[in-house]
Amino acid sequence: MFIAFDIPIFDILIYAIKNNAFLDIIKYIIEKTPYTELNYGVKEHHKSFKIPLFEAIAKNNFKIADLLIEKGADLNYEYYRSWCKVDDIWDYVFRYCGRTDQDTELDYYHYVNADVFNYLREFDCLNNENYKYLEKKGLSLEISYNQYLDDKRKEIEEREKRRIDLINKYFTPRK
């Protein structure tokens, strides 16, 4: 992995996983490039980051996930980094993986703290297949997949209700 501070960087392993490279290509990249650690994350831009193992699971590419685990990637890895300064505590970048703190100068800073489950929820990639994969690997998840679907459904309904309320509030026809 190549280190850069707060600058989006290109990572060949993550690029290959995102673009559905064959397992042999992933093996080649791991063996022939200077990857000494597979538990890392890369900032792609201000609203996105990628973690190799989590991305393979998000894409339901479990053969690649198994290879990464075999080579040292950890399902219990938690990606943590300072992300950006925000103007208000209510400005957030990430819903499941984010945390906003106030420093001594009353500035707000947003941090990313992502485990595999929150990563999948953050990027809307949690599905029955990868949920079962994680269960088979012995990962204890905080809610059942059906509960997750119910929560997601409620979230969509609440968002739709807020949208309709805003439309009614600001765009009601005058008589």
Provide a descriptive summary of the structure in words.
This protein has helices spanning 12-18, 23-32, 52-58, 62-70, 116-122, 128-136, 145-170; strands at 42-45, 48-50, 79-86, 98-102, 108-114. By secondary structure, it is an alpha+beta fold. The protein folds into two domains: 12-142, no CATH class; 144-175. Strands 3-5-4 form a three-stranded antiparallel beta sheet. A two-stranded antiparallel sheet has the order 1-2. Residues 1-6 and 85-94 have low confidence and may be disordered.
What tags apply to this protein structure?
15% strand; alpha+beta; 175 residues; three-stranded antiparallel beta sheet; 7 helices; 43% helix; two-stranded antiparallel sheet; disordered N terminus
End-to-end Cα distance: 63 Å
Tally of distinct domains: 2
Q: What is the quaternary state of this protein?
A: single chain
The counted number of beta strands is: 5
Number of helices in the DSSP assignment: 7
Strand order of the largest sheet: 3-5-4
Report the portion of residues in β strands.
15-25%
Helix and strand composition category: alpha+beta
- Uncertain segments: 1-6, 85-94
- String of helices and strands: HHEEHHEEEHHH
Overall mean confidence score, pLDDT? 76
What portion of residues is helical? 40-55%
Radius of gyration computed on alpha carbons? 19 Å
Large-scale geometry:
elongated
For the largest beta-sheet, the strand count, sense and barrel status come to: 3 strands, antiparallel
